[in-house]
Known about the structure:
The protein is an all-alpha fold. 64% of the residues lie in helices and 0% in strands.
Amino acid sequence: MMGYAAAVSTSMRRELRDYFTQCQNETMDLYNKTLDLLLEKGIVSRPPFIYPSDQVEFIKQQGFMEGLLGGKRPLDCIEVSNLYWNLKKIQLSKTITMAFAQIAKSDEVKKFLWRGVEIYRKHIEIFEALLTINNLPTPKSEEAEVTNSTISPFSERLMMFHKALFGSTTISSYGTAIATCHRKDLGVHYSRLLVEMANYMEDGFHIMITNNWAEQPPSAPDRKDLAMNK
């Protein structure tokens, strides 16, 4: 839904905007059906609930942004939302990466994927600790849904493409969290985890380039090269 919304807002041609709007509507309908089914079966983790204040409150102290050494105040609703939903995304990324590592054939791809499992595990521990310290619930993991099969229904190229997609959305989510959180300690966590994820995804991109799996998007012309070598 986020991707289609971005596509609508960055497209000029009307037929493209109409197409992406249709895709957005279909995706929203699918999301609603999926969530309704999860709620009906009782297998969805509900996010933390914060009771709203009876009146508007304003920040009175500069210390609202402190928290480098563990936090001087409870998490606000924006910080809770970022932590909870980033944790859910990382849990899903870890589960799929673990499943991909289990069925991958190339040793290079296996090592890269399992390295991702270890990275995601650390991120999960940090997010869970931050929520637990504030007496907030954490979502359940989907790791138990992975079977013992080692037969791959996917190509290495497709698995690496999905890893690149997960990595880019994770980096985007962390960047949004940095821009919207107020406690400094959270900004420090997100910043270093973002850098770690960026370095990991760079190594994955090298694997895709080496195996000729990465298609080059259209690029702007090199004006200097055209001028010097015409």
